[in-house]
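Internal ticket - ligand job 352, 3,4-dihydroxyphenylalanine:
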Amino acid sequence: MDQKFETQSDYYQILRSQMLADADAVTDDKQLEVFRVKYLGRKGLISSLYEEIAQAPADQKPVMGKKVNDLRVEVTKIIEEKKGTLGQKDKIENRSSLDVTLPGVASSIGHQHILTQTVNDICGLFEKLGFVVQDGPEIETEFNNFAALNIPIEHPSRDAFDTFYLDCKDPSNPNRNLLLRSHTSPGQIHIMQKSKPPLAVVIPGKVYRPDAVDASHSFMFHQIEGLLVDKHVRFSDLKGLLTHFCKKFFSDDIKMRFRPHFFPFTEPSAEVDISCYICKGKGCSVCGRKGWLEIMGCGMVHPKVFEAVGYKKGEYTGLAFGMGVERIAMLKHGINDIRIFFENDSRFLKQF
Ligand code: DAH
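stdout (C-alpha cells):
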C-alpha cells in the first residue's frame, strides 16, 4: 500500500472515488472492458488488494476483507448497469441510422370471405330488381322449419338424424323442442307473419344438418331463400326472374332448364339447371358429363303455406326459390371440396 496514505481507510476511499470517476468516463463497450480489466482483471487493483490481505496481520484481515469485497461487488454492479445503458444507447443510435427513404413494410388488409362475397353478389342482383335482404333466426321452432312449410310430421327431414334438435323446449309449444334451422325456408314464414303482400325478399344465412363431413357435405352451410308474393304472380314470372339471375351471375350464353320436382312448400315445384358454362353443355368433369349443372330449387308458394301464416285463401300467389351458397361458389370458381371454405387457410382465401 502506498505510504502517502495514512490509513487503509483513506486508501479505500481514494480508490473508490477513482473507480467512480473512471466508471463515469466510460462511454462505449471498449472503454467498459478497459475499466473491468483495471479493477477486476487478474492483475487488477482489486486482485492486488486481496494479495495484501493475505499478508496483513490476522486481526486486520476481516476488516480489510469486507472493504475489498464491498468494492468488488460495487464494481461488478456498475459494470452490469453500464452494459444495460450502453446497449440501449446502441439501439437508439442504430434507429437513427434508419433509412427513411426505403419503402415501408405494408400491413396486409383483410378482405371478405369468398362466401360473403358470393352472398353479396347474389343478393345484390336481386336487390337491383327490388328485392329486400332480410334476416331470419338460426334457432327455429318445428312449426316454422317444418309444419308451416307443409312438411308433415312423418317427412324424413324431420327425423332426428336429419335435423339438429336442441335440448330446449319451444316456449310456444312445450311438447316440442327447438332446433337449428335445416334450411332458410322458415324465413318465408317470419316475413309473411309480419308483413302483408306485395313483398319480395331474399334471406341469406347459415343452415345446419347432421351430415357426415366430406368433399360435398358440411354440417353447416349457407343458403339464400327468395320469396315474392303479390296478386297474380305466375310461374312465368318465376322462370323469367331466375333466368335473368342465372344469366347475370354466370354468363349470358347459358341455357336454362326447369325440371319438375317435389318440394312440400311449393306447387308446382322445379329444380333449376343451367347448361354447363365450362363445356357449354357438351359434358365435362365439372358437370359429371351431363352438360347441366343443378343450381337451385323453386316453385309457386303452396296454398297451405299461405294458410299457415294466416293469409286469406286465394288472395295471393307467390314464387319461392332456394339455393346453396357453397355449391354456387364451387361451381363458379371450380372449387371441388366444400371443407376448404371453413379451414381458414389464407392461401386459399387470398385467391378471391
Ligand atoms: N328449402 C329447400 C332445401 O333446403 C330449398 C328450396 C327449394 C327452397 C324450393 C325454396 C323452394 O324456396 O321453392 O332444399
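Auto-summary: The mean pLDDT is 93. Residues 183, 185, 225, 263, 266, 297-299, 320-322 surround 3,4-dihydroxyphenylalanine (CB under 6 Å).
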